[in-house]
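Our working data are protein records whose layout never changes between entries. Getting from the letters to the tokens is the skill we practise here. To make this concrete, we reproduce a full record directly below:
***
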Amino acid sequence: MALVCGIYGFEITVPFTACGMQFVPLQSIYQQAKAAARDLDRYNLTAIVIAEDFPSDLLFRLEAVLSFIEHLDVIVTEPMQLTMPNGHDQFPKIIMTSRRHNGGGAIIASDTFFPDSRPAFIDKAIQRLGDSVYCEATGYRTLFFKTIETFRQRKPFLEVSYFLLFSGLETYVRSTLNDFNTREVAILLRHQLNILGFNVYNFRADQPERSMDTYARLRNALFHNSKFEAHRSHKGVIQTYKLITFYSQFLILVGLVVVKATDFDDGHLNWDAWIDRQLLK
């Protein structure tokens, strides 16, 4: 007999199958599905997922992948026997728990507009997270889970969120390049992100948002001095970088790196969205 889990807080309007699991939405109207999925005060039942078996690690990965897509915490319940014709009726419509924290908006477009994008990403990400050889060689799993922990925290702190993002990215870059000795991490970030196709530099005084040196200095200022700003002298001029100014850009950049590391490209993502804030092209 098939098993079914409830999904709370994930936007879906079109049934699909990924990794052998059948996803069935509660809503088919975009505005209603989006409102239910992005409700910050409660977890609304938005879908069920049906399969013959749900190994515990698969559920763990599925919940993480759905949360990453939304950049909001998503709940996937423990499986139960599918006993009712409408599996939605086996689950409460609302779960009340701690308030959800917006992680900046969904990073994979709605299935209302691009029906194949979310299923394809779910399939790829679940398989990558389950590939222990790939994860060990690249630090992908660390990058993925540190990224989603930024908005899963009960009470997000800017410094904690930033350190999670930076350390996850550094782990991925050092592991992928197999370089754990170079001290100037900005050089490594620039190198690997250039390989992935991102327009970044080690240091450009006129483009601090694209300079990996900016983000490395902010990490060092936080870690060593508990300061929320960093400084650099360039041609006799002191430049000041404030974490509050650069955090949102770095958050989007790291999210896009996760998508690249998942080997996903649906042709709709703007890989420069961390600069112009336009996710779709």
User: Anything to note?
Assistant: The chain has a mean pLDDT of 95.
